[in-house]
Write a structure and sequence with these properties.
Helix content is about 40%, strand content about 20%. By secondary structure, the protein is of the alpha+beta class. A hairpin with a 4-residue loop joins strand 1 and strand 2. The longest helix has 27 residues. The N and C termini lie far apart (about 50 Å).
């Protein structure tokens, strides 16, 4: 670290891999390594990236003008961010996985937990949350809800909560929401309503449209 060239070398061997993995992770949820544990991964990815872009780095190093500095910044900071975002989007949409499965190759899923996979892809759904010391909690999990992606804290915030009468019909309970702690959750049932889209936060809801027509049960424990 005694010269600008040494600083540039260190940045070039760490920053591209770090940025690539960081922007990839913005499209995924679940378990991630600490930066101290992932330092070797950043280095390996940076080496591969530098090998692929070596001609561009050599061309930029010959430029003594401001454009050379701009080009170096783009290669070290800008391009890895773009590549990481594209890889993250392709992983989220499972483009690569679908291609490999067509080739009769079954790769390990990039998302480690079913919790992260289901809630990461869900745009809005009615849910029945069964807690340990009580009956099921009926609610709507949409854009104004929150689902923790921390493996150690799987709590839920439901933007709208319903009451269930003796006949099993969902009744609008007004402007009520609920936070459910992780250690209270036993099951979550995802319910497909009779209409395609669920209500947004603050809108009136037709209770008849909330009657489930199909259920998929996921055991969280």
């Amino acid at each position: 670290m005694k010269s600008p060239e040494a600083i540039q070398t260190i940045l070039a061997f760490v920053v591209p891999g770090l940025l690539l993995m960081f922007f990839r992770s913005q499209f995924l949820t679940g378990r991630g390594q600490k930066h101290s544990d992932a330092l070797l991964s950043y280095f390996v990815i940076s080496v591969v990236y530098l090998a692929a872009t070596l001609p561009a780095f050599q061309w930029i190093s010959q430029k003594q003008t401001g454009w050379g500095v701009v080009g170096w910044i783009v290669l070290v900071f800008g391009l890895p961010a773009i590549i990481g975002s594209l890889i993250g989007l392709a992983t989220r949409k499972e483009f690569t996985r679908q291609l490999l499965r067509r080739l009769r190759i079954n790769p390990v899923h990039p998302i480690a937990a079913a919790w992260d996979w289901k809630f990461g892809e869900m745009s809005g759904a009615y849910v029945l949350v069964t807690i340990k010391n009580g009956g099921p909690i009926a609610g709507y999990c949409g854009d104004a809800s929150f689902i923790s992606s921390d493996p150690g804290e799987r709590d839920l915030y439901l933007e709208k909560v319903y009451e269930i009468d003796a006949e099993g019909t969902w009744q609008d309970a007004g402007q009520r929401s609920m936070l459910i702690k992780a250690d209270e959750v036993r099951f979550v049932e995802f319910i497909i309503p009779q209409h395609e889209e669920g209500p947004s936060y603050g809108e009136e809801t037709d209770s008849d449209a909330s009657i489930p027509t199909h259920e998929t049960i996921v055991d969280l424990r």
